[in-house]
Amino acid sequence: MKISPASIKVFALLAVLGVNSVNSFSSNISRRLNTSPTALASTTAKDVVTPSKPLAQQTSVAAVPKFAQRWRKRTKQLATLGPASSSLEMIETLFLAGADIFRLNFSHGSQEQKKELLMMIREVEEKYSHPIAVLGDLQGPKLRVGEFSNPKGEMLEKGQIFRLDLDEALGDATRVMLPHPEIIAASEIDHVLLIDDGKVKLTVVGKGDQYLECRVDVPGKISNRKGVNTPDSVLDISPLTPKDRSDLEYMLGIGVDWVALSFVQQPADIEEILALIDQHLPEGAFRPAVMAKIEKPSCFLGDNLERIVDLCDGIMVARGDLGVECAPEDVPLLQKQIIDTCRMSGKPVVVATQMLESMIESPTPTRAEASDVATAIYDGADAIMLSAESAAGKFPEESVAMQQRIINRVEGDPHYRNYLNQITMTKGATATDAITTAARQIAQTTNAKAIVCFTLQGTTVRRASQERPTVPILSRPGSFGFTADEEDFFNYENPAVDGENDSDFEVVLKNACRAALKKGLVNDPNDILVVTAGLPFGTPGAANIIRVLPAAGPQCWDGVCQVD
To answer: What whole-number distance in Å separates Cα of residue 387 and Cα of residue 365?
Structure first.
């Protein structure tokens, strides 16, 4: 089987959103233009080159690329794009500062603007020959009260009775329209309703077919179109509004890598979006993965959380609405519960919302915020996210760089590995499971610098990263003998990478050395790589070989790594 260099570039994707791993440089999904799931790579065909400089000018194996540490971090970073980060220059800056995945928030801006941002991300991806994932975030239902005759709103007093009804008349100090009959139908006596992110708390004391009588327990001001949260009720509504359905179809057309679903209440909501993707996915187009945003208390009823995790491809701990609808002291425990459930199921999990909130206005975070980010990493999150900090803040680059500094600091702490080892995923009785488990153990025993996985459809690298090894994982795509030109890369004399050697396992191993060298994962001829592959080549899931080899390749002398 032979894959063109152009196709290889299209397959590349970030690990964290494809596998439950803090270590991998590839993902479980093939890239947009591919018609079937294919091997995924953190590097491209450009890693294997034809010599263009004299041997005397060749780069020493000790000359590590400038951004080597950039590729070594395990926990990945999501950065939301917005007014403060909508230029090509800023997107590139954020990528170099540490951003691995960019979030397009479809709650704001036009669809055309999102496409422009996606195309700029692809430019940066192409420039650095490194995969960058794009997550499209659907807005979800927005539940709001109606409008008041006083444009400034009304002040509600503690203990007063306030009515929410379906009457379209403008509201006053005693009532206001609630244009959501599903809330009235689902609410019961003693259920709580939260207005304006919990600034006003109402408790239902009476109800009819078209109204709710509520007691004001937490007084405050209520004004036009303020949001309503229903922590005690499961509403009989779809998580996808007409706008969301339009946005989803648009995402499928432009080729986002992930779709984040808001307002998930129960497993049926995931089934609904999966069916819509099946229905609207253009023929031959890339199928995005689905991420469920956990922000409703109903997700924790019975076995809902486990079933949601099983159905979707990844989870986001959306602490914004979750923090409104749940007690503040419960949110850290729920965060740990979600992360543990995802880790045991082998699904990636992202922790989001207010991670470095003060950096919207300040170039440095509070110590509490730094501790919050570190806690998410210690808990085992695969990724941490920035929202307004990178989208609309004054210091987007500093926010991303600060997250990376915290990641590097935590991952260098011996306690970090101890915490990760406390929970492991359930393993299957397959050859791939056995090979990847052995690869992790060998890498640890030999103090290897990286694990290199050759994969056709991503199965092996997904499984390897679920092992949470102590070293980075580098994946290489399905056709392992290919050629490309790149003047600035390491120059090897007579590289054996022509089409006739596609099944030559020695060429496969040489390419593994080159890829690790380019990324700066190795910097000494004696550095060790653990390589997994499957024979015969081209057979999905056929991981049946482990090789331990010096990163220098078969020949190394005078401090120069020479592969021929």
So the answer is: 14
